[in-house]
Amino acid sequence: MGNIWEIIFATDFIFSVVRVTTPILLAALGAIVSDRAGVVNIGLEGIMLMAAITGVVISAQTQSAFIGLFAAVCAGILIALILGYFVLEMKSNIILGGIAVNLFASGGSVFLLYVLTGEKGTSSSLASKVVPNINIPIIKDIPIIGEIISGHNLITYIAILSVVAVYLMLNKTPMGTKIRSVGENYHAAESVGINVKKVRYIALGLSGMFAGFGGAFLSMGYVSWFSRDMSAGRGWIALAAEAMGGGNTIGTTITALIFGFAQAFANSLQGLNIPSELITIIPNVVTVLGLCIFAITKTTKVRKVKANEKNNN
Amino acid sequence: MNNYKIFEPIRTAVAIIIALIIAFIVILLVSDDPIGTMTILLVGPLKATRYLGNVIELFIPLAFTGVATAFLFRAKLFNLGAEGILYICGIIATVIAIKLKGYGILQAVVAIGVASVVGMLLGGIPGILKAKWNINELVVSLMFNSIFFGIGFYILNNYLRDTDQSLVASYRFVEPGKLALGNLVAGTRIHYGLILVLIVALLSYVFMFKTKWGYALRMTGANNRFAYYMGIKTFSVIVYTHLIAGFIAGMGGAVEVLGMYDRFRWGALPGLGFDGALVALLGKDHPLKALLAALFLAYLRIGADIMARSTEVPSEMIAIIQAIIILLISAERFLAKWREKQLVKEAK
Amino acid sequence: MSNCLLSLKDITKIYPNGVVANKGITMDIHEGEIHAIVGENGAGKSTLVKMIFGMEQPSLGEIRLRGEPIKIDNPQKAIDLGIGMVHQHFMLVPSFTVMQNLLLGEEPKKGVFIDNNKAMEVTKQLSEKYNLYVEPTVKIRDLTVGMKQKVEILKALYRGAKILILDEPTAVLTSQETVELFSKLQLLKEEGHTIIFISHKLKEVKEISDKVSVIRQGKFEGTYNTFDITEREISKLMVGRDIILKYDKNPPKYGENILTVKDIEYENDNKKILDKISFSVKKGEILGIAGVEGNGQNELVKLITRLMDTQKGEIRLNDTLINNMSISELRANGLSYIPEDRMTTGIAGDGSIADNILANRILEDEFTNKGLLAGNKMKTKTGELIEKYVVKCSNALQKIIDLSGGNIQKVVVARECSVDLQLLIAEQPTRGVDVGSIEFIHHQLLEMRDEGLAILLISADLNEILELCDNIIVMYEGEIVAYFDDKAKVSEEELGMYMLGLEKHSPKNIRRAFNE
What pTM does this model have? Predict the structure, then answer.
């Protein structure tokens, strides 16, 4: 077991936690913004997948990583808005709508890949581009911290900045206030003339944007190709992270880091003598356990409060 | 009075037609012979007995997962766990079938029975988590899909794997040329699982519409506040709904593996459980209508497979059709104006 | 007229389901007046003002502002036109502070961020200007109802409202709060605001308004100078119904106690909702609970029907303690309950009429035969009930949600009252129901009483309480403040005094409600 501790305290492990957390965190930010507006986006998983394939295809076409990234994000926004149209205008059930997006993306991305490359597994034949890693001057030279903080993919830094941006947006700007009021009591928002539908479209669009960045990271940063179902449940894990984070930015970020840790841990166990099939389920098990612990402590807290009330009487 | 009864099928039909039209547009973009391709997609399965057989063969697992999911959706439990249960119960059935190789009918009976019970117990886990602590069943069920796959695949690779095979596969559980669930229709691979799934669907219908528990389940789904106020114990409804769904999905896994293969061959989740969601939705969460939906989807799938084999359009195109159908059918406002007009007309 | 600010011409509102809420309403509202719109529950007052505030669109007719015809498509348009509204149910975000709620959607900005200092300043200025004191940084959920209402009024004023609509503003207020509200409204009026005040409490209307418009069953009955008309006259215009709800009752034949409630207390968020409630209901008695809504009646009913857990005290049904009984056991023991929120609790809207009308019977295995439900028996029973309770529908498998409100309520009544029961809890049983159905339901209740059932009737409709009940309890702020066992001696006005907490019976008299 000594090996495991060595793994965890190695700087490259912590570096990889940050790397692995990136897509989960981005999708979780999408979950926060949409959930706070009262329209939790269940389609994050599918949106990531579609963004991932779009990024690969467009970057290969244009030979520009940035155009590819831009296109991926646009694809994310577009799908989220289509989902929004069905949920807000056509009154589709949001869960079923989300399921539709995911089913669509799972097959649709492969369809697109096949039509363009003739392959169904990965996009290795496409000369797609990768979003560059960034070495931060000065910080990169600090021992340990530099090794952990510097040298990440640009999208990872975008993710970190996004956390700050989402926090400020939700809590300090008029738009954030609108989003939260619409989510908590849309009648109140309506009564002061806020266009509830518009706010929800914006929130869904933002969630699509974040999931789009997350998807682009998968195929243009984490690895340099698209492969079938490569989002691998990260969109769902992100939803779990958001639920456990209580919908607030900081809590969700911490939970996303825990899930990222589990994933990175699973990745680094690959070298050890543990069956790889069982390693791959670690992030899922951690997510289920996390959800359980969170829910159980919440209910016992409520019970305790009730019990106290009884005692006080 | 008959308006509602007519309206729903029309709505479903219109949704399907719109989806097919959009599919045609997509085919138009990628195919040199769009009309030919579309024709294959739509009537391909009718061209040979073997193809029709394929439709029924695919219908069987889709009907299992569809009926299982119909139970969950009917109670407004959005659980997509049929996929993982189908997989791991396929593994369980394989383990037992290998042990009981050569025991004839007993092999299939025990394997299916045990797999179903295991499926029921596993299906109950998210049910209890939901009922007791209100933990989101959708996220949990998806996590369990990966977990069950991981564990199942581990068992397959470490205990069941026939290393003589180049692809991932277990040891044989039947002699070459035979299948554990026999053959029902000559010239096809349709097996006795068909009868089983029809019985399951019928019993499900009876349970859901002709028993008190089924009533409690339906009312919990229709309005859980009403159910609670009427004295229905929603806790137990959530749990038994999950148990039943797990049982049926587990049986589906076992039947599919034993009915179609001589070895366990799934190196990835087969996707049949997710399709169950679509079947349930198309079938309006009704076990018998789900059969029709499963038949439709199986037909479409086989059509797409034939299309993929004979044209350059991949079978994944189906995903587009499915997504559009789900979105339209779940859309309350879809054709609502038309219905309102009809209602007004009728009132006059 | 020259100073006519807002005029409604022939306003008619027909909802898609065919309900005519307003019919040909014509009304002039002048600048600087307090204009009361009165009418009974369900007369169409709220619909009318919702159209003025852009939440609903008139089907026919015209609204003019300062003589100009206008179309108010949405609340934003109304706000832009200087119209503000304080809704009956507050439109506030509970987790937001007073300040955030006040400025929602129009916060002062510094760059892209909300300027909190400025916001604070604006809030304070506003509060001072209109003499409505609020604490800017307190969260809405921690406020009393009266404070919330002030926030609502300020919210409208901040958005430049010159015309202020208040929908039943006093329904949720204590008497002191009402007094305070009225003095504030007078101040606003002096500053040139025009106030539209909706109420069905005539005393208040007399006290505060300059003009009064009466609506009866969606129709306009005229506008009067408040000074020139008496309460009695207004009341005649308001009520003057086509069917007079007056019943000849048989003298009561009381039996033993069926329901006994003893020393019930209930707290939520450290706030006492119910305090030492004790009473009993006898066989053959209709006991009424009168009170302004939100004085604990709803919680009391939830405790008796086991929808909530009792924290302190004892509730007995026929001497059996039911504090920990399950709902199904309780129902099996003879309790039936017509809930206040018919649509969200009383029915499963997606279910058929049969699904809804037979619910209790199905769950109590009345139709179970060898584990299966006997379809024919169910069909017959449904038919019987539909006929007996005169439910207008095309067939038993029709979705219940497609029925009218009155017919839906008849389904609920049929379900709850047709089984073998001992105690019926009827909570606002005729709210929002057409007159025909009201009469039908009332007759049902009286019949059941004569058959020896115990009935607890909770209603905000005093006419209903006085006509049906044998004995009456009045609840105010979670306490029983009065008990009347001689109805001849009590009038609506008198009940009103107790309901508003202006008067209170002696503890000794109140204890009589608890019949050992």
Answer: 0.84
